[in-house]
Amino acid sequence: MNITKSFTENIFEIVKIMATRDTADYLYLNCCFKNIMGLAEILGFDLEYHVRLKMRYNALREYKHGKAY
């Protein structure tokens, strides 16, 4: 994580590392999660609030979002 880079640049670096891995072990995913949480904290973004908000929104959506597939 680099505080001189933009949010998009930092997330891209995290995702790039995740995409180049062959396996997703627990410690590796935990490290990525901590980096994302750290970035959100630096930027003053309450990530937990927004995740909960999205989960609540998803719970209220109709099954398969009203589509037949």
Protein described:
- The chain is mainly α and 69 residues long.
- The protein has one domain (7-66).
- The chain has helices at residues 7-19, 26-42, 47-60.
- It is extended.
- The termini are far apart.
- The model has no long low-confidence stretch (mean pLDDT 82).
Number of individual domains? 1
Largest sheet: none
Oligomer: single chain
Q: For the CA atoms, what is the radius of gyration?
A: 16 Å
Total number of strands: 0
Q: What class do helices, strands and sheet pairing give?
A: mainly alpha
Overall pLDDT metric: 82
The number of helical segments is 3
Strand content: under 5%
**Uncertain stretches:** none
What is the succession of H and E elements? HHH
The level of helicity is 55-70%
The best one-word shape is extended
Ends apart, CA distance between termini: 40 Å
Features:
single chain; 69 residues; mainly alpha; 3 helices; 64% helix; extended
List strands and helices in order, with pairings.
Elements: H1 7-19, H2 26-42, H3 47-60
Question: Can you give me a brief rundown of this structure?
Answer:
The protein is an all-alpha fold and 69 residues long. Helices cover 64% and strands 0% of the residues.
